[in-house]
Write a structure and sequence with these properties.
Number of domains: 2
CATH topology of the largest domain: Aspartate Aminotransferase, domain 2
Strand content: 5-15%
CATH superfamily of the largest domain: Type I PLP-dependent aspartate aminotransferase-like (Major domain)
Bound molecules: pyridoxal-5'-phosphate
Radius of gyration: 21 Å
Length: 396
């Protein structure tokens, strides 16, 4: 076999590299520490989903499904989107079940974008969004949005829009900042989308993780928005099944059909037995489940944010999702090892055995994230408590 240096990789593959997140995960494992970096939650999968998966495998639900998902699941998702998200979809034909919400994001991006098109992405962004959008050949225009304390500025978007702009990506509640878009902000965004004829892809994967009275509003629920919006969500975060790779999108039928065909081409279908298992999430879990989820994360959020503040971070309180994007400037003023985000990340691994994610991972210009680290609080409470003890022990 030819040495790997002889391979001539496609341009799209050349820039791929192990993300900072994976690298720090490896580092913290080496020192036997706790990983607050990667957004994997280690909480248990609800029993009805586990039982459903076992049942589906025992029942031999093992062959390909319809490329857009089994009908009962698409119907259940439709009903959930109507009730919780107030999205005015009317038929399972408008629902695509895919390989995680990421898989559906890929089908949406591949169905809409190509070289020459432009797509607006807000910063700080979720890296997969940016990298997948780039894979389509489209040009990504990053627009600063900020975190929980910042308000969407239509003029900043307006300045980034050219005649080639086609798509805008919204993530609410947002990873990494914890910002939750308000109805007013979404309404201003819709106005802009209508004037520039843009389609929105909204990633709402953290739609149930909300704090301090924040409300989740789906862009597609606003009058006139559904016709130009793809709403994405999934099972990974709400039901602690990140490895199941099951997510979905809701969009007007012609768009959903195109995404379904793209899903067929790229993946054929989402894992069939797990589609049956996911039905249990709708059939067997009541609203109490979401209330409990919210309360559990609210407790973890306070624990982590107060610990970070106590040791010298500035922590804009996340309104949603399960991350804190914290600024270590005050700590840097009093200690060595915090020259920039990479140094700070390494210092936390060495001195507290805690993994975080460098701020640069969320910005086009790495300098914009040089004072920030992201921490994930989707951890079992005893593990999070231990992590907080380690942080206080090292820096308190
Ligand atoms: C904003 C956002 N979207 C999507 C995902 C991945 O979702 P899925 O597992 O459904 O592909 C993540 C995971 O970290 C995320 O933070």
């Amino acid at each position: 076999m030819a040495p790997s240096s002889h391979f001539s990789f496609a341009t799209r593959a050349q820039s791929l590299e192990q993300s900072d997140i994976r690298a720090v995960t490896q580092r913290v494992e080496e020192v036997g520490g706790i990983n607050l970096g990667q957004g994997i939650c280690d909480l248990p999968t609800p029993e009805p989903l586990r039982a459903g998966a076992q049942r589906a495998i025992a029942d031999d639900e093992s062959i390909y499904s319809h490329y857009a998902g089994i009908e009962p699941l698409r119907r259940a998702i439709l009903e959930k989107e109507q009730a919780y998200n107030e999205v005015p979809a009317t038929s399972p034909e408008e629902v695509v079940v895919g390989v995680g919400s990421t898989g559906v994001f890929v089908t949406a991006a591949m169905s809409l974008l190509e070289a020459g098109d432009e797509v607006v992405l807000f910063e700080p962004f979720y890296g997969y969004h940016r990298n997948i959008l780039e894979l389509t050949g489209a040009t990504v225009r990053s627009v600063p949005l900020g975190g929980p304390g910042s308000t969407f500025d239509p003029e900043a978007v307006e300045a980034a829009i050219t005649d080639d702009a086609k798509v805008i990506v919204v993530n609410t509640p947002a990873n990494p900042s914890g910002k939750v878009w308000t109805r007013e902000e979404l309404s201003d965004l819709l106005d802009l989308m209508e004037r520039h004829d843009l389609v929105a892809i909204t990633d709402e994967i953290y739609e149930y993780m909300l704090y301090d009275g924040a409300q989740h509003v789906s862009l597609a629920s606003l009058p006139g928005a559904y016709d130009r919006t793809i709403t994405l969500s999934g099972f990974s975060k709400t039901y602690n099944v990140t490895g199941w790779r099951l997510g979905y999108g809701v969009a007007p039928a012609p768009l959903a059909e195109r995404m379904g065909l793209m899903n067929d081409l790229l993946y054929i279908c989402a894992p069939r037995p797990l589609q049956h298992a996911a039905l249990a999430a709708f059939e067997d879990l009541s609203d109490d489940y979401f209330e409990q989820l919210r309360d559990d994360y609210a407790e973890r959020r306070v624990l982590l944010c107060e610990t970070l503040e106590a040791i010298g971070f500035e922590v804009p309180r996340p309104e949603g999702a399960y991350y804190a994007l914290a600024d270590f400037s005050p700590l840097a003023a009093t200690r060595d090892g915090f020259a920039d985000d990479a140094a700070a990340c390494e210092t936390l691994v060495q001195e507290a055995k805690i993994a975080s994610v460098t701020g640069r991972s969320f910005y086009e210009d790495p300098a914009d994230g040089r004072r920030q680290l992201r921490f994930c609080f989707a951890k079992e409470l005893p593990v999070l408590r231990q992590a907080c003890d380690q942080l206080r022990g090292a820096f308190g």
